[in-house]
Records
---
Amino acid sequence: MKKIGILTFHRALNYGALLQAYSLQRVLVDNGYDAELVDYRCKFIESYYVPLWKKIFISPKRFLAGIIFNGDILRRRDEFEEFTRTDITVSSNKYENLMDLSLIQDQYDYFITGSDQVWSPVCAGFDKAYFLDFVVEKSKKKSYAASFGVSLIPEEMKTEYRKLLKNFDRITVREEEGQRLVEQIIGIEPPLVVDPTLLLNKLEWLELCGDTLLSEKDFILVYLITEDSEVLSFAKKLSEKTGKKIIYINDRIIKRFGMDNKSNVSVKEWISYFMKADYVVTNSFHGVAFSVNFNKEFYVRYIPGAKVNSRISGILSRLNLEARIIPDSMDISTKKINYTNIEKDISVMRNDSKDVLFSML
Protein backbone atom coordinates (compact mmCIF):
# COMPACT_ATOMS: atom_id res chain seq x y z
CA MET A 1 0.00 0.00 0.00
CA LYS A 2 1.41 3.37 -1.01
CA LYS A 3 2.01 5.78 1.87
CA ILE A 4 1.27 9.43 1.18
CA GLY A 5 2.16 12.51 3.23
CA ILE A 6 -0.06 15.56 2.76
CA LEU A 7 1.19 19.07 3.51
CA THR A 8 -1.47 21.74 3.81
CA PHE A 9 -2.87 24.35 6.21
CA HIS A 10 -4.43 21.76 8.54
CA ARG A 11 -3.76 23.87 11.67
CA ALA A 12 -5.34 27.09 10.45
CA LEU A 13 -8.41 27.90 12.55
CA ASN A 14 -10.54 28.11 9.45
CA TYR A 15 -13.36 25.70 8.64
CA GLY A 16 -12.58 25.52 4.92
CA ALA A 17 -8.87 24.90 5.50
CA LEU A 18 -9.51 22.01 7.90
CA LEU A 19 -12.26 20.44 5.79
CA GLN A 20 -10.28 20.47 2.56
CA ALA A 21 -7.50 18.66 4.45
CA TYR A 22 -10.01 16.11 5.77
CA SER A 23 -11.51 15.61 2.31
CA LEU A 24 -8.26 14.92 0.48
CA GLN A 25 -7.12 12.40 3.08
CA ARG A 26 -10.51 10.67 3.17
CA VAL A 27 -10.69 10.27 -0.62
CA LEU A 28 -7.20 8.76 -0.67
CA VAL A 29 -7.91 6.39 2.23
CA ASP A 30 -11.28 5.35 0.77
CA ASN A 31 -9.43 4.38 -2.41
CA GLY A 32 -6.82 2.19 -0.79
CA TYR A 33 -3.97 4.56 0.06
CA ASP A 34 -2.28 4.97 3.43
CA ALA A 35 -2.52 8.76 3.69
CA GLU A 36 -1.86 11.09 6.59
CA LEU A 37 -1.34 14.78 7.18
CA VAL A 38 2.24 15.68 7.95
CA ASP A 39 2.02 17.64 11.20
CA TYR A 40 4.05 20.60 10.02
CA ARG A 41 3.90 23.68 12.26
CA CYS A 42 4.43 26.67 9.98
CA LYS A 43 5.77 29.50 12.16
CA PHE A 44 3.94 32.14 10.11
CA ILE A 45 0.56 30.46 10.58
CA GLU A 46 1.16 29.50 14.22
CA SER A 47 2.07 33.10 15.11
CA TYR A 48 -1.27 34.31 13.78
CA TYR A 49 -3.11 32.33 16.44
CA VAL A 50 -1.12 33.23 19.56
CA PRO A 51 -3.38 34.01 22.55
CA LEU A 52 -4.71 37.57 22.65
CA TRP A 53 -2.96 38.37 25.93
CA LYS A 54 0.39 37.72 24.21
CA LYS A 55 -0.57 40.10 21.41
CA ILE A 56 -0.53 42.96 23.92
CA PHE A 57 3.24 42.56 24.02
CA ILE A 58 3.64 41.78 20.31
CA SER A 59 1.48 44.65 19.10
CA PRO A 60 -1.14 46.62 21.05
CA LYS A 61 -2.80 47.49 17.73
CA ARG A 62 -3.09 43.80 16.80
CA PHE A 63 -4.51 43.06 20.23
CA LEU A 64 -7.27 45.67 19.88
CA ALA A 65 -8.10 44.48 16.36
CA GLY A 66 -8.42 40.93 17.67
CA ILE A 67 -10.81 42.00 20.43
CA ILE A 68 -12.98 44.32 18.34
CA PHE A 69 -13.15 42.48 15.06
CA ASN A 70 -12.52 38.80 15.67
CA GLY A 71 -12.94 38.08 19.34
CA ASP A 72 -10.61 35.42 20.69
CA ILE A 73 -10.39 33.06 17.73
CA LEU A 74 -8.54 30.56 19.92
CA ARG A 75 -11.92 29.48 21.31
CA ARG A 76 -12.12 27.42 18.13
CA ARG A 77 -8.87 25.57 18.86
CA ASP A 78 -10.41 22.92 21.13
CA GLU A 79 -13.20 22.19 18.63
CA PHE A 80 -10.78 21.94 15.71
CA GLU A 81 -8.33 19.75 17.60
CA GLU A 82 -11.17 17.43 18.66
CA PHE A 83 -12.24 17.02 15.03
CA THR A 84 -8.63 16.36 14.02
CA ARG A 85 -8.23 13.74 16.76
CA THR A 86 -11.41 11.86 15.83
CA ASP A 87 -11.67 12.24 12.06
CA ILE A 88 -8.22 12.91 10.60
CA THR A 89 -4.97 10.92 10.72
CA VAL A 90 -1.97 13.12 11.47
CA SER A 91 1.67 12.05 11.66
CA SER A 92 2.76 11.01 15.15
CA ASN A 93 5.61 13.52 15.12
CA LYS A 94 5.43 17.25 14.54
CA TYR A 95 7.87 19.21 12.39
CA GLU A 96 8.85 22.86 12.61
CA ASN A 97 11.31 23.51 9.76
CA LEU A 98 12.68 22.19 6.48
CA MET A 99 15.53 20.39 8.25
CA ASP A 100 13.03 18.42 10.37
CA LEU A 101 10.99 17.59 7.28
CA SER A 102 14.03 16.45 5.29
CA LEU A 103 14.44 13.57 7.74
CA ILE A 104 11.09 12.00 6.73
CA GLN A 105 11.66 11.79 2.97
CA ASP A 106 12.00 8.01 3.02
CA GLN A 107 8.93 7.47 5.21
CA TYR A 108 6.50 8.23 2.35
CA ASP A 109 6.16 7.01 -1.22
CA TYR A 110 4.71 10.36 -2.29
CA PHE A 111 4.10 13.82 -0.90
CA ILE A 112 1.11 15.93 -1.93
CA THR A 113 0.88 19.66 -1.28
CA GLY A 114 -2.48 21.41 -1.47
CA SER A 115 -5.23 22.38 -1.61
CA ASP A 116 -5.72 25.87 -0.19
CA GLN A 117 -3.43 28.82 -0.89
CA VAL A 118 -0.23 26.82 -0.32
CA TRP A 119 1.54 28.67 -3.16
CA SER A 120 0.48 32.16 -2.23
CA PRO A 121 3.29 34.73 -2.09
CA VAL A 122 1.62 36.06 1.07
CA CYS A 123 -0.12 33.24 2.98
CA ALA A 124 2.19 31.24 5.24
CA GLY A 125 5.00 33.70 4.56
CA PHE A 126 5.95 31.97 1.28
CA ASP A 127 7.03 28.89 3.25
CA LYS A 128 8.95 26.55 0.94
CA ALA A 129 7.76 23.51 2.88
CA TYR A 130 4.51 23.82 0.93
CA PHE A 131 6.54 23.62 -2.29
CA LEU A 132 8.01 20.33 -0.94
CA ASP A 133 11.47 21.87 -1.13
CA PHE A 134 12.71 19.41 1.50
CA VAL A 135 12.11 16.42 -0.83
CA VAL A 136 15.13 15.49 -2.97
CA GLU A 137 13.46 12.90 -5.19
CA LYS A 138 11.39 14.71 -7.82
CA SER A 139 9.16 11.71 -8.56
CA LYS A 140 7.71 11.95 -5.04
CA LYS A 141 6.54 15.57 -5.38
CA LYS A 142 2.90 16.16 -6.38
CA SER A 143 0.35 18.92 -5.92
CA TYR A 144 -3.41 18.56 -5.75
CA ALA A 145 -5.59 21.64 -6.30
CA ALA A 146 -2.81 23.96 -5.19
CA SER A 147 -3.87 27.60 -5.17
CA PHE A 148 -1.84 30.79 -5.51
CA GLY A 149 -4.71 32.87 -4.16
CA VAL A 150 -3.63 35.74 -6.42
CA SER A 151 -3.73 36.55 -10.12
CA LEU A 152 -0.19 38.00 -10.30
CA ILE A 153 3.18 36.88 -8.93
CA PRO A 154 5.54 39.74 -8.02
CA GLU A 155 8.23 40.05 -10.68
CA GLU A 156 11.04 39.75 -8.14
CA MET A 157 9.68 36.35 -6.98
CA LYS A 158 9.27 34.67 -10.36
CA THR A 159 12.80 33.22 -10.48
CA GLU A 160 12.26 31.51 -7.12
CA TYR A 161 8.83 30.25 -8.18
CA ARG A 162 10.31 28.84 -11.40
CA LYS A 163 12.97 26.92 -9.48
CA LEU A 164 10.42 25.48 -7.02
CA LEU A 165 7.70 24.54 -9.51
CA LYS A 166 10.08 22.97 -12.04
CA ASN A 167 11.08 20.47 -9.39
CA PHE A 168 7.58 18.92 -9.18
CA ASP A 169 6.78 15.62 -10.84
CA ARG A 170 3.06 16.42 -11.26
CA ILE A 171 1.16 19.67 -10.72
CA THR A 172 -2.58 20.22 -10.55
CA VAL A 173 -4.26 23.48 -9.58
CA ARG A 174 -7.65 24.63 -8.37
CA GLU A 175 -8.28 27.76 -10.46
CA GLU A 176 -7.83 28.94 -14.03
CA GLU A 177 -5.67 31.76 -12.64
CA GLY A 178 -3.40 29.08 -11.24
CA GLN A 179 -3.24 27.34 -14.61
CA ARG A 180 -2.24 30.59 -16.25
CA LEU A 181 0.42 31.35 -13.64
CA VAL A 182 2.04 27.92 -13.86
CA GLU A 183 2.10 28.11 -17.65
CA GLN A 184 3.55 31.61 -17.45
CA ILE A 185 6.26 30.57 -14.99
CA ILE A 186 7.36 27.11 -16.25
CA GLY A 187 5.63 26.77 -19.63
CA ILE A 188 3.32 23.89 -18.65
CA GLU A 189 -0.48 24.08 -18.40
CA PRO A 190 -1.44 21.85 -15.44
CA PRO A 191 -4.79 20.06 -15.12
CA LEU A 192 -7.59 21.95 -13.39
CA VAL A 193 -9.15 19.98 -10.52
CA VAL A 194 -11.82 20.70 -7.93
CA ASP A 195 -11.23 21.70 -4.34
CA PRO A 196 -11.03 18.55 -2.16
CA THR A 197 -14.30 19.45 -0.40
CA LEU A 198 -16.06 18.89 -3.74
CA LEU A 199 -14.55 15.41 -4.09
CA LEU A 200 -17.09 14.31 -1.48
CA ASN A 201 -20.78 14.38 -2.31
CA LYS A 202 -23.65 15.51 -0.10
CA LEU A 203 -24.34 11.99 1.23
CA GLU A 204 -20.72 11.59 2.32
CA TRP A 205 -20.85 14.90 4.19
CA LEU A 206 -24.17 13.83 5.75
CA GLU A 207 -22.51 10.63 6.92
CA LEU A 208 -19.74 12.65 8.58
CA CYS A 209 -22.24 14.86 10.44
CA GLY A 210 -24.06 11.81 11.83
CA ASP A 211 -25.89 12.60 15.07
CA THR A 212 -24.69 16.22 15.06
CA LEU A 213 -27.02 17.14 12.17
CA LEU A 214 -29.01 20.12 13.41
CA SER A 215 -32.78 20.33 13.71
CA GLU A 216 -32.76 24.06 12.78
CA LYS A 217 -34.86 25.01 9.75
CA ASP A 218 -36.27 28.02 7.90
CA PHE A 219 -33.18 30.21 8.08
CA ILE A 220 -30.69 32.23 6.10
CA LEU A 221 -27.08 31.35 6.89
CA VAL A 222 -24.49 34.11 6.86
CA TYR A 223 -20.84 33.08 6.84
CA LEU A 224 -18.17 35.70 6.15
CA ILE A 225 -14.38 35.53 6.04
CA THR A 226 -14.21 39.31 6.48
CA GLU A 227 -17.22 41.08 7.92
CA ASP A 228 -18.93 43.35 5.42
CA SER A 229 -21.74 45.62 6.64
CA GLU A 230 -23.23 45.79 3.14
CA VAL A 231 -23.46 42.00 2.97
CA LEU A 232 -25.17 41.95 6.37
CA SER A 233 -27.61 44.61 5.15
CA PHE A 234 -28.31 42.45 2.09
CA ALA A 235 -28.99 39.45 4.37
CA LYS A 236 -31.49 41.54 6.35
CA LYS A 237 -33.26 42.55 3.13
CA LEU A 238 -33.42 38.89 2.15
CA SER A 239 -34.82 38.06 5.59
CA GLU A 240 -37.55 40.69 5.20
CA LYS A 241 -38.39 39.37 1.74
CA THR A 242 -38.53 35.69 2.71
CA GLY A 243 -39.67 35.91 6.33
CA LYS A 244 -36.79 33.68 7.39
CA LYS A 245 -34.50 34.38 10.35
CA ILE A 246 -30.76 34.96 9.98
CA ILE A 247 -28.15 32.72 11.59
CA TYR A 248 -24.75 34.40 11.53
CA ILE A 249 -21.68 32.27 12.31
CA ASN A 250 -19.01 34.50 13.84
CA ASP A 251 -16.68 34.73 16.81
CA ARG A 252 -16.81 38.49 17.24
CA ILE A 253 -17.03 40.00 20.70
CA ILE A 254 -19.45 42.66 19.44
CA LYS A 255 -22.54 40.84 18.20
CA ARG A 256 -24.93 41.99 15.47
CA PHE A 257 -28.53 42.86 16.35
CA GLY A 258 -31.44 41.40 14.44
CA MET A 259 -29.83 38.00 13.84
CA ASP A 260 -28.99 34.84 15.73
CA ASN A 261 -25.22 35.03 16.33
CA LYS A 262 -23.57 31.62 16.63
CA SER A 263 -20.06 31.37 18.08
CA ASN A 264 -17.89 28.40 19.05
CA VAL A 265 -19.52 26.38 16.27
CA SER A 266 -17.99 22.92 15.94
CA VAL A 267 -16.74 21.68 12.57
CA LYS A 268 -19.63 19.24 12.11
CA GLU A 269 -22.15 21.85 13.23
CA TRP A 270 -20.69 24.23 10.62
CA ILE A 271 -21.32 21.65 7.90
CA SER A 272 -24.81 21.06 9.29
CA TYR A 273 -25.72 24.74 9.11
CA PHE A 274 -24.88 24.75 5.39
CA MET A 275 -26.80 21.53 4.88
CA LYS A 276 -29.97 22.79 6.62
CA ALA A 277 -29.98 26.43 5.40
CA ASP A 278 -32.59 27.66 2.94
CA TYR A 279 -30.32 30.47 1.76
CA VAL A 280 -26.61 31.21 2.19
CA VAL A 281 -25.02 34.66 2.07
CA THR A 282 -21.23 34.57 2.01
CA ASN A 283 -17.93 36.01 0.78
CA SER A 284 -16.03 32.78 1.39
CA PHE A 285 -14.75 30.40 -1.30
CA HIS A 286 -15.64 27.38 0.81
CA GLY A 287 -18.97 29.02 1.64
CA VAL A 288 -19.69 28.91 -2.09
CA ALA A 289 -18.27 25.38 -2.50
CA PHE A 290 -20.48 23.89 0.23
CA SER A 291 -23.50 25.85 -1.01
CA VAL A 292 -23.27 24.40 -4.52
CA ASN A 293 -22.43 20.93 -3.21
CA PHE A 294 -25.59 21.02 -1.07
CA ASN A 295 -27.74 22.64 -3.81
CA LYS A 296 -28.42 25.83 -1.85
CA GLU A 297 -29.80 29.15 -2.98
CA PHE A 298 -26.81 31.37 -2.28
CA TYR A 299 -25.55 34.90 -2.77
CA VAL A 300 -21.90 35.86 -2.77
CA ARG A 301 -20.06 39.16 -2.66
CA TYR A 302 -16.39 39.64 -3.47
CA ILE A 303 -14.23 41.01 -0.67
CA PRO A 304 -13.51 44.62 -1.74
CA GLY A 305 -9.93 44.98 -2.92
CA ALA A 306 -8.92 41.43 -1.93
CA LYS A 307 -6.50 39.48 -4.10
CA VAL A 308 -8.16 36.17 -3.22
CA ASN A 309 -11.39 36.80 -5.14
CA SER A 310 -10.04 34.76 -8.07
CA ARG A 311 -10.87 31.62 -6.06
CA ILE A 312 -14.54 32.56 -5.96
CA SER A 313 -14.70 33.84 -9.52
CA GLY A 314 -13.12 30.58 -10.70
CA ILE A 315 -15.79 28.30 -9.25
CA LEU A 316 -18.61 30.64 -10.31
CA SER A 317 -17.26 30.73 -13.85
CA ARG A 318 -16.86 26.95 -14.12
CA LEU A 319 -20.48 26.41 -13.01
CA ASN A 320 -21.98 29.43 -14.83
CA LEU A 321 -23.15 30.94 -11.55
CA GLU A 322 -21.89 34.51 -11.96
CA ALA A 323 -25.49 35.68 -11.53
CA ARG A 324 -25.24 34.80 -7.81
CA ILE A 325 -22.86 37.71 -7.19
CA ILE A 326 -24.57 40.37 -5.06
CA PRO A 327 -24.85 43.49 -7.26
CA ASP A 328 -23.73 46.94 -6.11
CA SER A 329 -27.40 47.93 -6.10
CA MET A 330 -28.00 45.19 -3.48
CA ASP A 331 -31.08 44.09 -5.42
CA ILE A 332 -32.27 40.58 -4.58
CA SER A 333 -32.62 38.22 -7.51
CA THR A 334 -35.73 36.08 -7.28
CA LYS A 335 -34.51 33.61 -9.88
CA LYS A 336 -33.89 30.16 -8.42
CA ILE A 337 -30.78 28.17 -9.25
CA ASN A 338 -31.46 25.24 -11.58
CA TYR A 339 -29.22 22.59 -10.07
CA THR A 340 -30.08 19.86 -12.59
CA ASN A 341 -27.22 20.68 -14.96
CA ILE A 342 -24.96 22.01 -12.20
CA GLU A 343 -25.12 18.68 -10.37
CA LYS A 344 -24.14 16.91 -13.57
CA ASP A 345 -21.25 19.35 -14.08
CA ILE A 346 -20.03 18.87 -10.51
CA SER A 347 -20.25 15.08 -10.87
CA VAL A 348 -18.16 15.18 -14.05
CA MET A 349 -15.64 17.55 -12.44
CA ARG A 350 -15.48 15.34 -9.34
CA ASN A 351 -14.85 12.14 -11.29
CA ASP A 352 -12.34 13.77 -13.64
CA SER A 353 -10.47 15.22 -10.65
CA LYS A 354 -10.33 11.84 -8.93
CA ASP A 355 -8.96 10.29 -12.12
CA VAL A 356 -6.22 12.93 -12.27
CA LEU A 357 -5.41 12.48 -8.56
CA PHE A 358 -5.10 8.69 -8.75
CA SER A 359 -3.12 8.85 -12.02
CA MET A 360 -0.47 10.89 -10.18
CA LEU A 361 0.03 8.04 -7.73
Note: The longest strand covers residues 34-40.
---
Amino acid sequence: MTATTEHPSVGPLLRSWRQRRHLSQLELGTEAGVTTRHLSFVETGRARPSREMVLHLAEVLDVPLRERNHLLVAAGFAPTFRESPLDDPSFAVVRTALDQVLAGHEPYPAIVVDRQWQLVASNLAAFVLVEDVAPELLEPPVNVLRVSMHPHGLAPRIRNLGEWAGHVLDRLRRQALITGDAEVGALEEELRGLLSEQGIDETRAGGEHAGDVAMPMLLESAKGPLALITTIATFGTALDITLAELALEAFLPADAATAEILREYAADLA
Protein backbone atom coordinates (compact mmCIF):
# COMPACT_ATOMS: atom_id res chain seq x y z
CA MET A 1 0.00 0.00 0.00
CA THR A 2 1.13 3.56 -0.68
CA ALA A 3 0.72 6.04 2.15
CA THR A 4 -1.02 9.26 1.24
CA THR A 5 -0.61 12.61 2.93
CA GLU A 6 -3.68 14.67 3.65
CA HIS A 7 -3.30 18.30 2.61
CA PRO A 8 -5.70 20.93 3.96
CA SER A 9 -8.15 22.31 1.45
CA VAL A 10 -8.33 26.01 0.76
CA GLY A 11 -11.64 26.57 2.60
CA PRO A 12 -10.44 25.68 6.10
CA LEU A 13 -7.18 27.55 5.48
CA LEU A 14 -9.07 30.71 4.55
CA ARG A 15 -11.29 30.30 7.58
CA SER A 16 -8.24 29.97 9.85
CA TRP A 17 -6.76 33.19 8.43
CA ARG A 18 -10.08 34.99 8.88
CA GLN A 19 -10.25 33.84 12.49
CA ARG A 20 -6.61 34.79 13.01
CA ARG A 21 -7.55 38.33 11.92
CA HIS A 22 -10.55 38.27 14.29
CA LEU A 23 -13.03 38.91 11.46
CA SER A 24 -16.52 37.51 11.10
CA GLN A 25 -17.69 36.22 7.73
CA LEU A 26 -19.84 39.34 7.45
CA GLU A 27 -16.91 41.65 8.14
CA LEU A 28 -14.62 39.89 5.68
CA GLY A 29 -17.36 39.67 3.06
CA THR A 30 -18.10 43.38 3.38
CA GLU A 31 -14.44 44.35 3.09
CA ALA A 32 -13.79 41.97 0.19
CA GLY A 33 -17.04 42.69 -1.66
CA VAL A 34 -18.15 39.05 -1.39
CA THR A 35 -21.51 37.83 -0.10
CA THR A 36 -21.49 36.07 3.26
CA ARG A 37 -23.27 33.13 1.63
CA HIS A 38 -20.54 32.67 -1.00
CA LEU A 39 -17.79 33.09 1.60
CA SER A 40 -19.46 30.45 3.77
CA PHE A 41 -19.64 28.08 0.79
CA VAL A 42 -15.92 28.63 0.07
CA GLU A 43 -14.90 27.98 3.68
CA THR A 44 -16.96 24.79 3.92
CA GLY A 45 -15.82 23.47 0.54
CA ARG A 46 -19.24 23.76 -1.12
CA ALA A 47 -17.83 26.27 -3.62
CA ARG A 48 -14.43 26.22 -5.30
CA PRO A 49 -12.89 29.71 -5.42
CA SER A 50 -11.17 30.98 -8.54
CA ARG A 51 -7.49 31.85 -8.52
CA GLU A 52 -8.43 35.53 -8.51
CA MET A 53 -10.76 35.05 -5.54
CA VAL A 54 -8.08 33.25 -3.52
CA LEU A 55 -5.59 36.06 -4.15
CA HIS A 56 -8.21 38.73 -3.45
CA LEU A 57 -9.21 37.23 -0.10
CA ALA A 58 -5.54 36.71 0.80
CA GLU A 59 -4.86 40.38 0.06
CA VAL A 60 -7.77 41.54 2.22
CA LEU A 61 -6.64 39.22 5.02
CA ASP A 62 -3.04 40.46 4.68
CA VAL A 63 -1.74 36.91 4.32
CA PRO A 64 2.08 36.75 3.88
CA LEU A 65 3.26 35.94 0.35
CA ARG A 66 4.67 32.56 1.44
CA GLU A 67 1.26 31.56 2.79
CA ARG A 68 -0.55 32.92 -0.27
CA ASN A 69 1.32 30.33 -2.31
CA HIS A 70 0.10 27.66 0.11
CA LEU A 71 -3.48 28.86 -0.35
CA LEU A 72 -3.15 28.71 -4.13
CA VAL A 73 -1.75 25.18 -4.04
CA ALA A 74 -4.52 24.10 -1.65
CA ALA A 75 -7.05 25.49 -4.15
CA GLY A 76 -5.47 23.50 -6.99
CA PHE A 77 -3.49 26.31 -8.61
CA ALA A 78 0.21 26.88 -9.20
CA PRO A 79 2.02 29.22 -6.81
CA THR A 80 2.32 32.84 -7.96
CA PHE A 81 5.08 34.30 -5.82
CA ARG A 82 8.67 33.24 -6.36
CA GLU A 83 11.33 32.86 -3.67
CA SER A 84 14.71 33.93 -5.00
CA PRO A 85 18.09 33.51 -3.33
CA LEU A 86 19.74 36.76 -2.28
CA ASP A 87 22.57 36.18 -4.76
CA ASP A 88 20.09 36.03 -7.64
CA PRO A 89 20.93 38.65 -10.32
CA SER A 90 17.44 40.12 -9.91
CA PHE A 91 18.44 41.20 -6.38
CA ALA A 92 21.39 43.30 -7.54
CA VAL A 93 19.52 46.59 -7.18
CA VAL A 94 18.11 45.55 -3.79
CA ARG A 95 21.53 44.52 -2.48
CA THR A 96 23.01 47.83 -3.62
CA ALA A 97 20.21 49.75 -1.94
CA LEU A 98 20.62 47.82 1.31
CA ASP A 99 24.39 48.38 1.29
CA GLN A 100 23.82 52.11 0.83
CA VAL A 101 21.30 52.28 3.67
CA LEU A 102 23.54 50.28 6.01
CA ALA A 103 26.57 52.44 5.24
CA GLY A 104 24.53 55.63 5.46
CA HIS A 105 23.37 54.75 8.97
CA GLU A 106 26.92 54.71 10.36
CA PRO A 107 28.24 55.51 12.93
CA TYR A 108 25.14 53.81 14.34
CA PRO A 109 24.59 50.03 14.09
CA ALA A 110 22.20 48.58 11.50
CA ILE A 111 21.44 45.00 10.44
CA VAL A 112 19.29 43.16 7.90
CA VAL A 113 17.49 39.99 9.02
CA ASP A 114 15.17 37.43 7.46
CA ARG A 115 11.79 36.24 8.79
CA GLN A 116 13.47 34.01 11.39
CA TRP A 117 15.76 36.83 12.60
CA GLN A 118 18.82 35.33 10.96
CA LEU A 119 21.48 37.86 10.01
CA VAL A 120 21.66 38.69 6.31
CA ALA A 121 23.88 41.80 6.36
CA SER A 122 25.20 44.48 8.70
CA ASN A 123 27.27 47.65 8.72
CA LEU A 124 30.64 47.99 10.46
CA ALA A 125 29.10 49.87 13.38
CA ALA A 126 27.11 46.75 14.30
CA PHE A 127 30.29 45.10 15.59
CA VAL A 128 29.81 46.98 18.85
CA LEU A 129 26.83 44.67 19.44
CA VAL A 130 28.94 41.51 19.42
CA GLU A 131 31.75 42.43 21.78
CA ASP A 132 32.67 39.40 23.90
CA VAL A 133 30.07 37.17 22.20
CA ALA A 134 31.13 33.50 22.07
CA PRO A 135 32.52 32.67 18.60
CA GLU A 136 30.19 29.68 18.17
CA LEU A 137 27.17 32.00 18.36
CA LEU A 138 28.56 33.98 15.44
CA GLU A 139 28.89 30.98 13.13
CA PRO A 140 26.42 31.28 10.21
CA PRO A 141 23.52 31.24 10.26
CA VAL A 142 23.57 33.85 13.04
CA ASN A 143 20.24 34.34 14.79
CA VAL A 144 20.38 37.86 16.22
CA LEU A 145 17.71 37.27 18.87
CA ARG A 146 19.41 34.09 20.09
CA VAL A 147 22.69 36.00 20.32
CA SER A 148 21.02 38.80 22.28
CA MET A 149 19.47 36.54 24.94
CA HIS A 150 22.09 33.80 25.21
CA PRO A 151 24.20 33.68 28.40
CA HIS A 152 27.30 33.55 26.18
CA GLY A 153 25.95 36.32 23.96
CA LEU A 154 24.72 39.81 24.78
CA ALA A 155 22.58 38.84 27.78
CA PRO A 156 25.24 39.52 30.47
CA ARG A 157 25.81 43.00 29.00
CA ILE A 158 22.15 44.09 28.80
CA ARG A 159 21.40 45.90 32.06
CA ASN A 160 17.62 45.85 31.59
CA LEU A 161 17.47 42.33 30.13
CA GLY A 162 14.15 41.31 31.70
CA GLU A 163 12.33 44.45 30.61
CA TRP A 164 13.89 44.54 27.16
CA ALA A 165 13.29 40.80 26.64
CA GLY A 166 9.62 41.24 27.54
CA HIS A 167 9.33 43.84 24.78
CA VAL A 168 11.13 41.66 22.20
CA LEU A 169 9.15 38.51 23.05
CA ASP A 170 5.87 40.42 22.79
CA ARG A 171 6.92 41.53 19.31
CA LEU A 172 7.94 37.99 18.39
CA ARG A 173 4.63 36.60 19.66
CA ARG A 174 2.70 39.09 17.53
CA GLN A 175 4.81 38.16 14.51
CA ALA A 176 4.00 34.47 14.99
CA LEU A 177 0.29 35.23 15.33
CA ILE A 178 0.17 37.53 12.32
CA THR A 179 2.22 35.33 9.99
CA GLY A 180 1.21 31.88 11.22
CA ASP A 181 4.93 30.98 11.09
CA ALA A 182 5.56 27.93 13.30
CA GLU A 183 9.34 28.49 13.17
CA VAL A 184 8.94 31.97 14.65
CA GLY A 185 6.79 30.47 17.39
CA ALA A 186 9.49 27.88 18.08
CA LEU A 187 12.10 30.64 18.31
CA GLU A 188 9.97 32.45 20.88
CA GLU A 189 9.81 29.31 23.02
CA GLU A 190 13.57 28.77 22.69
CA LEU A 191 14.28 32.33 23.84
CA ARG A 192 11.97 31.96 26.82
CA GLY A 193 13.94 28.85 27.74
CA LEU A 194 17.24 30.73 27.54
CA LEU A 195 15.89 33.43 29.85
CA SER A 196 14.53 30.84 32.28
CA GLU A 197 17.92 29.11 32.45
CA GLN A 198 19.46 32.44 33.50
CA GLY A 199 16.77 33.07 36.10
CA ILE A 200 15.49 36.08 34.15
CA ASP A 201 11.80 36.93 34.35
CA GLU A 202 10.56 38.95 31.40
CA THR A 203 8.79 42.10 32.49
CA ARG A 204 6.68 44.72 30.78
CA ALA A 205 7.57 48.35 30.21
CA GLY A 206 7.31 50.38 33.37
CA GLY A 207 9.31 51.64 36.28
CA GLU A 208 12.50 53.32 35.12
CA HIS A 209 11.31 53.60 31.49
CA ALA A 210 7.60 54.26 32.04
CA GLY A 211 7.92 57.81 30.70
CA ASP A 212 10.18 57.01 27.75
CA VAL A 213 8.92 57.20 24.17
CA ALA A 214 10.55 53.85 23.30
CA MET A 215 12.04 50.89 25.13
CA PRO A 216 15.85 51.26 25.11
CA MET A 217 18.34 48.44 25.24
CA LEU A 218 20.83 49.41 27.94
CA LEU A 219 24.05 47.76 26.81
CA GLU A 220 27.45 47.77 28.45
CA SER A 221 30.38 48.31 26.05
CA ALA A 222 34.14 48.56 26.38
CA LYS A 223 33.88 52.34 26.04
CA GLY A 224 30.93 52.84 28.39
CA PRO A 225 27.18 52.25 28.73
CA LEU A 226 24.98 52.52 25.63
CA ALA A 227 21.27 53.29 25.45
CA LEU A 228 19.88 52.16 22.09
CA ILE A 229 16.43 52.29 20.56
CA THR A 230 15.52 50.61 17.28
CA THR A 231 13.45 51.12 14.16
CA ILE A 232 12.43 48.36 11.73
CA ALA A 233 11.80 48.86 8.01
CA THR A 234 10.46 46.41 5.41
CA PHE A 235 9.82 46.38 1.66
CA GLY A 236 6.13 47.18 1.51
CA THR A 237 5.58 46.48 -2.21
CA ALA A 238 7.62 43.28 -2.53
CA LEU A 239 6.41 40.53 -4.88
CA ASP A 240 9.23 38.11 -4.08
CA ILE A 241 8.94 36.07 -0.87
CA THR A 242 12.59 36.56 0.09
CA LEU A 243 12.37 40.32 -0.32
CA ALA A 244 9.03 40.53 1.51
CA GLU A 245 10.52 38.75 4.51
CA LEU A 246 13.61 40.95 4.86
CA ALA A 247 13.69 43.58 7.60
CA LEU A 248 16.22 46.30 8.31
CA GLU A 249 16.71 47.05 12.00
CA ALA A 250 18.49 50.33 12.69
CA PHE A 251 19.82 51.22 16.15
CA LEU A 252 19.72 54.84 17.29
CA PRO A 253 21.32 56.51 20.31
CA ALA A 254 18.80 57.32 23.04
CA ASP A 255 21.08 59.93 24.58
CA ALA A 256 24.04 62.17 23.74
CA ALA A 257 26.54 59.99 25.63
CA THR A 258 25.64 56.95 23.50
CA ALA A 259 25.99 58.98 20.30
CA GLU A 260 29.47 60.09 21.33
CA ILE A 261 30.59 56.54 22.20
CA LEU A 262 29.34 55.22 18.87
CA ARG A 263 31.28 57.95 17.06
CA GLU A 264 34.38 56.86 18.98
CA TYR A 265 33.86 53.27 17.85
CA ALA A 266 33.44 54.45 14.26
CA ALA A 267 36.70 56.42 14.45
CA ASP A 268 38.51 53.29 15.66
CA LEU A 269 37.21 51.34 12.65
CA ALA A 270 38.13 54.06 10.14
Note: The chain has a mean pLDDT of 92.
